[in-house]
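Predict structure. Chain length: 418.
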Amino acid sequence: MNKKGIIQTVLVLLMITFAVKVQSQEILNLEMAIETGKKNNEKIKMFKEKVKQKESEEKIAFGNFLPNINLSSGFTHMNEPIEMDLDPIRQVTMTLQAKNQVDFSNIYNILQGGTGLTQQQRASLYSNYYSTLDKQLPKFSSEIKKMDYWNLTLSGMQPLFMGGKIINAKKYAEKEKEVMNSELKKAENEITNEIISSYLNVVLCRDLIKLRKEVLEGMKKHRNDAKRLMEEGLIAKHEYLRAEVAVADAERVLFDEENKLSLSKIALKSAVGIKGDEEIIIEDSLVFYETQESIAIFKQKMEENQPVFQTIRLKREEAEIKQKIDKADFLPKVYLFGKYEIMQSYLSILEPEWVVGIQASINLFNGFKDSEKLKQNKYLLSEIEYLEADTKRKMNLAVEKFYKRSEEHTSELQSRQV
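Prediction complete.
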């Protein structure tokens, strides 16, 4: 390979190296960091899946309004078939009919001028008539149900009135979905707060490093000046050694700050969800901003935007809906039902092909369980009220604490600027 080819190869390698380096860097601002963190965070993904679960539960609750249709099939074997035997009635019928025929024959002979039938004649006629009837009349017995039979039944039930339980169950499922969305928002706020803290920590460390470098350059200049003055005999050697120590201390502090910056970037990458050795570049810088809003405004915004208060409100609404659901147990339940037998060849003469009807039921006594459920809901509502009051007190205290700390830092910064 000639010299020109070597130069071209080196240039290509340099371009590839530069391209890889550029690709392994990512420029981040705070908005991008928050958006990326929300997209990559596993906890947020977990709560999104929980929201989907609650959406499915809401659809399940809606399904209670629709009819319940079932298709069932089975095979049954009995120890013997079910039969209906009416032979005693047949025997009585033939006996009465044969006796009547004998009496009619006797009367006919008398009306013709003859004498009445003797006992032997009556017995002979009775036997003949009975035998004839026995041959002519069918057996009064029938197989109602076979010993082995199949069934294929289509049945359905449609609730008509369940005391409001179905409607309130649907509302409860909707509130559960809202609660999970509130939990999702809380998780997003937590990861946002973590990203902001990590991001600002990186910016702070970077600015501190810049300041430490300027201090180090000043220390080195002072050391060089001290060395020259020592060599000229204008200052003692310990003055120069003191300048050397100061440079060494400044270098150590700079090294510590660079390590802190490296750790801060690792924490930021973990919070944002950036994996691998990809380098992040932060272009923002810290700017002092003095808020003009009062503490009352912050408390108001806290109550309006804090997800925990929304969750408590939804939990209270859920408890109220649950109370309505439990009250429904004291009311009657009415539903429409129907059944159709598809395999009709196995039906007995006593079984219908299809039936429809309406049915109602009400519980009269179940060991006071329903009334205790209502008491339990009442206690739960009281618990939620106490929880809301305690949470509001603690959150107001936190707002006051951070507001006072902000005022202290503002005053300190302004005094240093003066």
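Summary: Residues 165-231 form the longest helix (67 residues).
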